[in-house]
Amino acid sequence: MNTTNSPDYELVSSFYGPGAIGCWLLVISSIFVAWMLDPIRRVQDTIDNDLLAAATFPAITSGHTIHQIARYPGGFLELARQGVFSAEQPSAVLTAMQVSDNVNATSFCLSFALLLIALYYFRVRRALIAAGLCLFVQLPRLLVADIGTLAVLLKDPEHVVPWWIKAVKFIQSSPLLG
Question: What value does the mean pLDDT take over residues 161-171?
Fold first, then answer.
């Protein structure tokens, strides 16, 4: 059965194809080799091109997931009710979100491993980049979890407004911005 022509995958971007994922994984594997086995690069605490290239792909996928969440047709609350990351019968929109979330989950695991390596060798700059990437790729899950938690706590999902939407509205209404 060929699942790539399935209507569930029609909204999945070609950015998540096997070539892009494979190249990204090869770049990350080169970082692991350089940070652990290369005696010269292991002692350096530099942000090199490999690390920037490896961090760019998950940053884009995380931003894409946030964009997909913001443009969800049913709104945030419907998304939180359906459970985008655990839906049993996902629609094409949910499938597209799950694909980008799979990349985010993979990049979280690999970034955490890079963080542990950087901490083991006391490389502060590398550790900061890896820790920042760990946090950024989990942002879409935190946004959806925040909405779902508020809906459950207040038991009135029609009037739930997440804290970050309130913050944006407050900043927009600030007299300093005119």
Answer: 62
Question: Does residue 153 have a pLDDT over 90?
Answer: no
Phi/psi of residue 37, each to 5°? -110, -25
Helices 124-137 + 49-70 axis angle, to 10: 20
Threshold 0.85, pTM exceeds: no
Tokens of residue 65, six digits:
């997931």
The whole-chain average pLDDT of the chain stands at 77
Q: Are 134 and 112 in contact (CB under 8 A)?
A: yes
